[in-house]
Design goal:
The strands form 2 sheets. The protein has a 3-stranded parallel beta sheet with strand order 3-4-5, with helices on both faces. It has one domain: Rossmann fold. It has 10 helices and 5 strands. It is an alpha/beta fold. β1 and β2 form a beta hairpin. Helix content is about 45%, strand content about 10%.
Length: about 220
């Protein structure tokens, strides 16, 4: 969890105020292995977040490090996991830039709404600026809160296609109260509502992403 709001940490049943976050690792006070927590979900571990992450880059050791954006990448390198997901803030900031530099691929989540799509355009500029100095790869754009009969769907998709050509994923997450309920329980929607639309949609998205990741691995 690399977002100071710590929603992922809370959603998995942990109190952000009672856990050490990646902030202490970035500052060199602890090793990443010392803060990783086992969750109630088999084979899923969590590096928790806390409010300190919001200003971590302007305090302590990071404040004087001109290459601080690369520190997360170096921290994650020794870890032995099949997949490491970095949950970033919904804003363009130091945390987001560090995550993009550390990641092999990025998945951009958006909603079919005006401000979300405008945010994608700003993000595209941000990514292009980073790409001039680091290798970045956008795996795809995933749309949630999708309403199949939305009148402006085609307009939103056209803007996304022009901003990130060929990156809009086929799988879309439809609106479903089951997602909110799963969040309250701190459990995957596959467990709380296995027959829901959201469960079907997330399974389809997972399969699409796995297929894309295998293709990228084959290219390397």
């Amino acid at each position: 969890d690399f977002d100071a709001q710590a929603n992922l940490t809370t959603g998995l049943g942990f109190d952000p105020d009672e856990q050490d976050s990646m902030a202490v690792v970035l500052q060199g006070e602890k090793q990443v292995k010392d803060i990783i927590l086992k969750t109630s979900i088999p084979n899923m571990h969590l590096s928790p977040a806390d409010a300190w992450l919001e200003r971590v880059e302007v305090t302590g050791a990071l404040a004087a490090d001109r290459y601080s954006h690369e520190r997360l990448k170096n921290i994650l390198k020794p870890l032995d996991y099949d997949f490491i997901f970095i949950d970033t803030p919904p804003s363009i900031c130091w945390l987001t830039e560090s995550a993009l530099i550390a990641a092999n691929n990025s998945l951009i989540c958006a909603t079919p709404e005006f401000y979300s799509v405008k945010g994608l355009q700003r993000l595209a500029i941000f990514i292009n600026n980073i790409a001039s100095r680091h290798h970045l790869s956008v795996m795809g754009i995933a749309l949630s809160f999708w309403y199949p009969r939305g009148k402006s769907n085609s307009d939103f998709q056209s803007v996304i296609e022009s901003t990130f050509p060929g990156k809009l994923l086929k799988s879309k997450i439809r609106r479903d109260i089951a997602v909110s309920e799963a969040t309250i329980y701190g459990r995957p929607v596959f467990k709380t509502a296995p027959k829901s639309r959201a469960s079907d949609d997330y399974k389809a998205l997972t399969k699409e992403l796995l297929k894309k990741s295998k293709s990228k691995l084959a290219l390397h």
